[in-house]
Amino acid sequence: MTEAGAQALTVSELTAYVRDLLDRDEVLQDVWVMGEISNFTHHSSGHMYFSLKDAGSRIRAVMFASRNRKLIFRPEEGMKVVARGRVAVFDRDGTYQLYVEEMQPEGVGSLYLAFLQTRDRLQKEGLFDRERKRPLPAFPRVVGVITSTEGAAIRDIATTLRRRYPLARVAIFPALVQGPGAPASLAAALAAACAYGELDVIIIGRGGGSPEELWAFNDEALARAIAAAPVPVVSAVGHETDFTIADYVADVRAPTPTAAAELVAPHVLELRRRVEEARRAMVDALVRRVQGDRQRLEHLLGRPGLRRPEQWIQWRRQTVDGLHTRLGQAAWKSVYRRKETLIRLTDILGRHSPKEQIQRAQNRLEAQKQKLQFAAWTGWQRAVHRFERQVDKLEALSPLAVMRRGWSLVYRPDRRELVRDISQLAPGDNVHVRLTGGWADCQVWGIEEESEDGGGATTAKGGIAPKRGQGGTRGTGQF
Known about the structure:
By secondary structure, the protein is of the alpha/beta class. The protein contains 15 helices and 14 strands. This is Exodeoxyribonuclease 7 large subunit.
């Protein structure tokens, strides 16, 4: 090995040397870096991988899950941030990167940015929609209050409820309202209130304070728990100028805890006024009812039957007797008319006995049957006679019948063309003659034409003779 090769470092050794240099540099072990987030990835493991860049350079950065869980805002692509961490070498790639311990937005408070991000996200999901807001009960029996037992808010709410509506019972669910553990404490108290089962409405809130002190009411998990509560929720956080995520998602927002108690509980003086109005309306209705009944009673007492009851009863008795007599007469007349009707119908039924009607119908049916059979037989005989006559006519016109009377048919040698005139033949032509019982192959050895006046032959040139050397069923002789 050469001297230069003996002094060379391996890649791993060089990387380890650079790592040691960076690790010994106190500035690089706790440094603040400002830049724009790019190539941001939130891995399924919880770790965040991204780069910080400016106009002239770029550095890779990683923020492990144990650290980024403390962020109150969500890093996004293109966001300008200030990150604190340490610079070290990533051995596998031999590159240096920033291991981020904490991070906050540049130019805007991280709390306010987290507030805006949570508000916009829940608003897109519809948790602020007016359609999902529920009305408060008119007369709550049990009011749940979620707040700190050490603050002024619980005293203001309890005092207002006792003064305005002592009929309501207050159920208190203590919770932390500021500090790191406040969001989880408020969510747990709300879960306990929802499981209580007797509440008609819930008040959640606290007195005034700085944005940081009110921050627990901007927690996203708490907001979703308020939206899912089974009863209406009134948010009363801080003063009238303070707005939190809980105010947006609650069914009703009250500017102060005292105002929340006034919203959920009607004033007892107002209830007394309404009860008095209802009492007066009921008395007026009863007076009108009594006056109406009295008028109807006076009207009834003015009838003749109530002025002279004995005379009215006697007159009614006479009326009943007359109706009884008329009813008896009408019943007798009705029975008599029905009896006459029954006798008449019996006579008619005797003349129109179903048995006789059936017998007559059967006789008519039998007569029609015989007529139909006779007509069918006669029609069949006529059809047979017509068929036989047609057969005779066809038989008389049959070429076979004509040949049996001595006639024959003469064809050309191909047996397709029938010879119809003597002009179609010439001496020496071969012909086929169709006779009764078979064919004869013949040759024309002479032609004899008839005169135009139908007399004898004008010329005699012989006749038709069978071919020599051919016999059998084709016949012999001359024609």
